[in-house]
């Protein structure tokens, strides 16, 4: 195998040269995902000519793309112009159990290439640059002007939610808990995973009306968990009309601090003293995935003016709202759970 992974001990000048060409790496991953290279490459090394025929590409150009990707551990060159899968490249397969294909496409959508060069403006001004670029706020643009990108977004978020829901269900201890409320829980993958694992548990999903309307079929009328699930349309920043033993707030506290404060305050206002609250977030510190989470943080700065939290900032906001944080623990390499109770 002649793959050449990134050398972390490279001289600073060479490492910097590699970093400023980071767009080439992202573009190469996007190209491989759009072409479906990982899907046609099987379990044995395959020649470039054969791959090119299956993909309807030029062999010479495909070889150049694959050799670039081998430098990052995506695919490996075995000699004789043949390439094979690596553990990482298999994640670009559509049928991979933990596929990251749609995530790879979402993070490299056309609008991102226009927004990233404006990062200095976002840093200087302290506001998102998206309206200046596209004439409207990010989600308005996505759903009105970029239908294909919106579909990629939905698939990426669904994939990510399903994968993290399994990790969170395995992490969460529900001893003494009879009811759970998933606040801003999207399609309800976390709630469905919990109801599947705990047959006596009852749960509520609260999210915007159009989101709840597309909830996991298992939670809807006639679904496997419908007798134990309640779907509540609403905006958690306005009101949370749900009483539960445990409130889950996962990956939604990425707006401005005022919106985060209102959401946490709404939980405290409705919950009984001593009720559990678990906030799950990507952190920009104290995490083995800081390159990933800090990159997401910068993207949020650009497109919606949001931000990922540090452990300290999240604890501060929760305590300010009337929550007593008792523990901060990793759920997986990129998610942390803030365990808290409602102050009496």
Describe the structure.
With about 350 residues, the chain is α/β, with parallel strands linked by helices. The protein has 16 helices and ten strands. The chain has helices spanning about 10-20, 20-35, 35-40, 50-55, 60-70, 100-105, 110-115, 120-125, 130-135, 140-145, 145-170, 190-195, 210, 255-270, 290-305, 310-320; strands spanning about 45, 75-80, 80-85, 180-185, 200-205, 230-235, 245-250, 275-280, 325-330, 335-340. The chain has a seven-stranded mixed sheet, sandwiched between helices. Strands 1-3-2 form a three-stranded antiparallel sheet. Helix 2 crosses helix 5 (about 60-70), helix 11 runs parallel beside helix 12 and helix 14 packs across helix 16 (about 310-320). The longest helix has 25 residues, at about 145-170. It starts with 11 loop residues before the first helix and ends with a strand. The mean pLDDT is about 95.
Q: Topology of this structure?
A:
Layout: H1 12-20, H2 22-35, H3 37-40, E1 46-47, H4 48-55, H5 59-70, E2 76-79, E3 82-84, H6 101-106, H7 110-115, H8 119-125, H9 130-134, H10 138-145, H11 147-171, E4 179-183, H12 189-197, E5 202-207, H13 209-212, E6 229-233, E7 246-250, H14 257-270, E8 276-281, H15 290-303, H16 311-321, E9 323-332, E10 335-342
Helix pairs in contact: 2-5, 4-5, 11-12, 14-16
Strand content: 15-25%
Total beta strands: 10
Number of helices: 16
**Helical content class:** 40-55%
Distance between the termini: 62 Å
Listing every helix as H and every strand as E from the N terminus to the C terminus, the arrangement reads: HHHEHHEEHHHHHHEHEHEEHEHHEE
The coarse silhouette is globular
